[in-house]
Amino acid sequence: MAENILEIKHLVAGYETRLGSLLAVDDLSFSLAKGEFIGIAGESGCGKSTLAYAIMSLLEDNGMIFSGEINFKGKNLVGLKKADLKKMRWDQMSMVFQSAMNALNPVLKISDQLVDVMQAHQKGISVKKARQKAAEMLELVDIPVDRLDAYPHQLSGGMKQRVMIAMAMILNPDLIIMDEPTTALDVVVQRNIIKKIEELRIKFDFSVIFITHDLSLLVEISDRLAIMYAGKIIEFGQAQRIYEQPEHPYTKGLMNSFPPLLGDLEEFGGIPGKPPDLLKPPAGCRFYPRCEKRMDICHQKMPDLINTGQERQTACYLYQGGHK
Question: Which domains can be identified in the chain, with CATH numbers?
Fold first, then answer.
């Protein structure tokens, strides 16, 4: 079994506001093996992006890690000096940001932005050699080399997103975090980008954390799935098993929110209600106010994330002495 490249232990992260501390990531623990692909899914506001930015130490000014550990290649990143973190980013771990439209500098050519990444981390590399590497990376993500000196506005949305993937890979990192990399793209382009990510992962053996609200994107390429709700992981396990037999009522609700490709037309209403206010989360299970299967105990104490068989973990009293 491959060794773990990332181990997160009891991570608590969020934001200081005038109304108090908002814990967008609340006591999360999981590990990621070398070459593994973990998908993280959940509704907007459940803490997925905060988790990604916490791992990369890129939280906003009012964002902070309150407690826990982020062990990357045996080194705890929490409390590490900014200079040391800066050296690691893009060299050992990188990120594809949510919106390529905003992540790329609109007044710089693609070549300048790719070359800048290499010169910032590989001291002494010549512009010629850096441009050659940039051209090779564009070819890997299926962008013609003649677009090297194009400006971002001259590329389609899908091409810009592939440029971001090329930028994240250009220094051969061990871990790439992808925060909703296919948002706002049509389904055909989404599919092409997902296939390209999978091809590159197999070829270069890097690990991936892929964040999305769209579970259907993750099933085929993820090794494992983590379902997040209100700052917590409420189901975690092998992707295909979760897709075929979701256990947590929230996971089932997410699955039922996507229409099948075949069969009769049906009306989909989604999950009733809305996610809780993380400044004042409900007592007990955070999904309690929206859950059709709720019991009295659900309102009293948050269920633990426990093993429910076949390398599956679920935080639900239905699987902890309740009614299946």
Answer: 4-92+173-260+269-319 (3.40.50.300)
